[in-house]
Specification:
The chain crosses the membrane at residues 7-25, 62-81, 93-111, 131-148, 169-191, 211-232, 253-275, 295-319. This is DUF3995 domain-containing protein. Keywords: Membrane, Transmembrane, Transmembrane helix. Residues 322-332 have a biased composition (Basic and acidic residues). The structure is a single chain. By secondary structure, the protein is an all-alpha fold. It has 2 domains: 2-108 and 122-143, no CATH class; 164-322, no CATH class. It has 12 helices and no strands. The chain has helices at residues 2-26, 44-48, 65-83, 87-103, 109-117, 124-143, 164-189, 198-227, 252-283, 288-293, 295-322, 346-351. Helix 3 (65-83) runs antiparallel to helix 4 (87-103).
């Protein structure tokens, strides 16, 4: 109980702190505020002054007072999760967590953080603000009241069998970023214009540099490989080579929360990219000929969307596989709370 209340208090602290920051901006303060469009590509001069943030007399409603009102809702949700835990509080906390993660636009962080680390011009207020939103989303996910009682079977932990459909979605979530992102980006770094005009490729490689390009290429591949843990033994029981953790059961939230956050981010990023391409076609800013010439770049948005869907399905499968049993019951063949095997079937329970 103390741990849950502590997590709820952390979410409440985030909501209050972020609300005060938004109130400061709404009432005329501009320190730490940026007016740059996160979906665009501002130049170094625009980034330097936050795209004219200091000259803004008032903010748009959803960037000003609208955001303050939404922070008030977050405060109420966090307070409810701390004082009156239950299904309503759990639903509110999870809704707030998903909303904050989506607003953080975290898919873009996969590109912006490596660029910032290599010293290139970066809109730091935007980057830090979205990291703050992402952290807030994680705090609300951690604070969500649990409606299922925990049960840890006696004896050494044993991995539970993973359904075939979960394995298939896990393998898809592993292969999609490798084949759909890492392979084409590696080809581009090597100067091979695969699905992208040669001139555009040359300018892009010169702009980001080899180190940033390498980081951008390897990050999705590493993420895809970690996804295999959702269907592997080491995703349920820590492997032997981990000192201090070897042989211990992996807490399901340790895998479910990050995987779920990334899945939401990937789906959101893919939908936003597809929406921007659709809008460009509708307004004439983009043509079908341009999309065909850069089919690999346009297809990356589909890769992100499919990757997010596959990862979400694999995460649901992992959560169902590792979900705790109700108090006093184990799974078939596992010891119950008093060391006795759990009932194998309903008929055995009735017969007993």
């Amino acid at each position: 109980m103390t741990g849950r209340r502590g997590r709820a208090l952390a979410a409440l602290g985030f909501a209050l702190g972020y609300g005060l920051l938004r109130l400061y901006w709404a009432t005329g303060g501009r320190w730490g505020y940026t007016a740059c469009d996160r979906t665009g590509s501002p130049g170094p001069a625009e980034i330097a002054d936050g795209c004219g943030a200091e000259s803004l007399a008032t903010l748009p409603f959803w960037s000003g007072w609208g955001a303050v009102l939404l922070c008030g809702v977050l405060v109420a949700v966090a307070a409810l999760a701390r004082l009156r835990p239950g299904r309503i509080a759990s639903a509110g906390a999870w809704t707030a967590a998903v909303a904050l993660v989506v607003l953080a636009f975290p898919g873009h962080l996969l590109f912006e953080i490596p660029v910032a680390l290599t010293g290139r011009p970066t809109d730091w207020p935007d980057l830090l603000g979205r990291l703050l939103l992402l952290g807030g989303g994680l705090s609300f996910a951690a604070a969500a009241p649990r409606t299922i009682r925990r049960y840890a079977p006696a004896g050494p932990p044993r991995p539970r069998p993973v359904p075939g459909w979960t394995r298939r979605w896990t393998y898809a979530a592993c292969l999609l970023p490798v084949l759909g992102f890492t392979v084409p980006h590696a080809c581009w770094l090597l100067g091979m214009p695969l699905g992208i005009p040669a001139g555009e490729l040359r300018r892009a490689v010169e702009d980001i540099g080899p180190l940033t390009g390498l980081l951008l290429t390897l990050a999705p591949m590493l993420g895809g490989l970690l996804t295999l843990g959702l269907a592997a033994r080491w995703g349920q029981v820590f492997p032997r080579w981990l000192p201090g953790l070897a042989g211990r059961r992996v807490p399901p939230p340790l895998a479910v929360v990050p995987a779920g956050v990334i899945a939401v981010a990937l789906v959101g990023y893919g939908l936003i990219g597809i929406g921007m391409m659709t809008e460009g076609l509708a307004t004439g800013a983009t043509t079908w000929a341009e999309l065909r010439a850069g089919w690999a770049v346009a297809g990356t948005e589909l890769v992100f969307l499919a990757w997010g869907v596959a990862l979400a399905a694999a995460t649901v499968g992992y959560a169902r596989t590792t979900r705790p049993d109700t108090e006093g019951e184990g799974r078939a063949g596992e010891p119950g709370p008093e060391g006795r095997p759990a009932a194998e079937s309903l008929s055995e329970r009735v017969g007993s």
